[in-house]
Amino acid sequence: MGVVMTKTKSRWLLFAIGIGALATSVACGNASGSLSPTGPSGSSTNGAVITGHVRGVSTAITADSFAPLAVSMLHVTISGTNISSTVDGSGQFRLTGVPPGTVTLQFSGPGVSASITLSGVTAGEQITIDVTLNGTSARLDSENRHKNGGREIEGHITAVDTSARTITVGGSVIAVPTTARIHRGGTTMTFANLTVGVDVEVETMMNGTTLTATDVSIEDDDDDDDRDGLTEVSGLVAGLTGQCPTITFMVRDRTVTTGANTKFENGCDKIKNNVRVEAKGALAPNGALLASSVELDD
Which domains does the chain have, with CATH numbers? Predict the structure, then answer.
C-alpha cells in the first residue's frame, strides 16, 4: 500500500513540475516578445507625443471656406518608423513615442499623399498641430509645443484685438503684454506689426488662466510686403484646382486664390502644377492670398 501511495505522489509531483515548466516557458516567451505583438519601430516612452487635427480640401475653395474631405479614411505615419495612427471622423490623430530630431509626417488615403516636416522634436515634448491637406500638398496651419511648463505656438495670426492686446494663433488667444519682446530676427517690432495673416512663433506661459506671450518672433517665410500693403509670394505651384479665372493653388505653405479681377501677366492657362510663379495680393482672414496679379517667375 505504501508503494502505491509513493508512485501516486510521484506522478502528481511530475505533473506539477510539468505545469510549472510550461508556465515558465510561456512567461519567458512573453518577456522576449515572441508571443505578444511588437510595438512601433523606434517608439519609446521617452519620445514626443504629436496630436493633431486634419482638415482637407477636395474641391475648389473660396477665400472664406474649405470644402470638407473624408478624413476618417486617412492614416498618418512617421516616415522611417512603424509609428502610425488613423485619423478619426472628427479629423483627430495621436502619435506617441516619436523619436527626437527632424521627423516627417506622411498622410495617406483616398486622393491624398502628402507630408509635412517638423524639426527640433525633443523627448518628452507635447506637440499639437493643425494641418490642411489638398491632394499631394499639406499646409501646417499651426504648431503648439509644450514642455516643462512652457508652450511654443507657431502659425498664422487669424485675429487681433488691439484694445485687449491679444492675438489668435492656431485657435489659441494669446495676451501680448508691453513687456513681451516682439521682433523679426534682431529687429525690434511693435504690436502694430502683428496683423492678420502674419506668421509668428510665440513663446508663452500661463498667467493664471491667461495664455501670455513672453516672446513673439515674426517669421520670415519669403513673403514680401509691398509699400502698398499687399503681400507677394513666389515659388512652385502645387495642388492646383478650379478653372480659369477662378483657381486655387499652393505656393509653399500659402494658399493662393484668384478670380475675375485677377490680372494674369502670362495668361491663366499658363498656371500649372510645378510652374514657378509670383503672386501678389491681400491676405484673407484665413491666411489665404487673394491674388490681384499672378505672373510666371523666371
Answer: 38-147 (2.60.40.1120), 149-220 (2.40.50.320), 225-296 (2.40.50.140)
Give the tens place of pLDDT for each residue, 191-218: 998 988 788 889 888 777 888 988 898 8
Identify the bridge partners of residue 115 per DSSP, sorted by sequence position. 106
d(C-alpha 285, C-alpha 160), whole Å: 10
Residue 187 pLDDT > 50: yes
Burial of residue 175, with CB atoms counted within 10 A of its CB: 0-12 exposed, 13-18 middle, 19 or more buried: middle
Higher-scoring residue by pLDDT: 68, 210: 210
Max distance between CA atoms of the chain, in angstroms, equals: 112
Which residue has better confidence, 297 or 43? 297
For residue 143, give the nearest of 124, 171, 165 by alpha carbon. 171
